Fold this protein.
Amino acid sequence: MPVQVESRSGVRVLTLDRPDVLNAFDTEFGKQFLDAVTDAAADPEVRCIVITGAGRAFSSGEDLGALAGTYEKGEVPELGTTLVERYNPLIRAIVAAEKPVVAAINGVAAGAGASIALACDYRVASAKAKLVIAFTKVGLVPDSGAVWFLSKMIGTSRAWELAASARPVDAAEALQLGLVHRVAEPDEFEREWRALADELASGPTKAYALTKRLLHRSTELTLDEQLDAEVEAQTEAGRSTDHLEGVQAFLSKRPPKFQGR
């Protein structure tokens, strides 16, 4: 199976497992990965999703090698259709998931692979990882939300530089720019992302989901609209059992035991 699935203590780990092609996407791989993300997002027992890669890459994006015959004949696939059918639904599923999604970037994340990492809520990188907005190297524009995420994270000027140059950004620079949240040495990397995932899986899942929704909507709302959206979200959060548990734990001076409800 090109996508390995592991479930443990509220954490669902999805491992991209085509290491021979640096976890590049073809049609079947894309379908299986979308199904895996969708299933994890819909499962109430899953309170945190982790996406990582097998081998030396997170994902190199589209499997151009599989399309070599087409290009050698002077033909070009309908790339817009590929986005509509494969990558856009995947990015939307990650963003819409009502639980934290962690990208454990074990190696190179290039092209749409970088976009997938940027779409996640947290990014933990191995010290040997690299992000490459590689599209202009083959005469294309960044897709799968790459420019949207980059411009929100680091501004349009820096986003332009990374997109236009298509240069590799190593883990140290990615941390400095704010593209990743944590960097760990390779021998500590898995321990780091698993600890983060466990922490998130034991947190107030409903509050995380509503916060995530507010953050993504904030880019398109006026201040007044955002304030109204916060009223709705806070009302919903206030009705959760986790809110009651959180306050009772605070008053009792003990750690809360959130159930994700």
The mean pLDDT is 94. The chain has two domains: 3-201, 205-252. The chain has ten helices and ten strands.
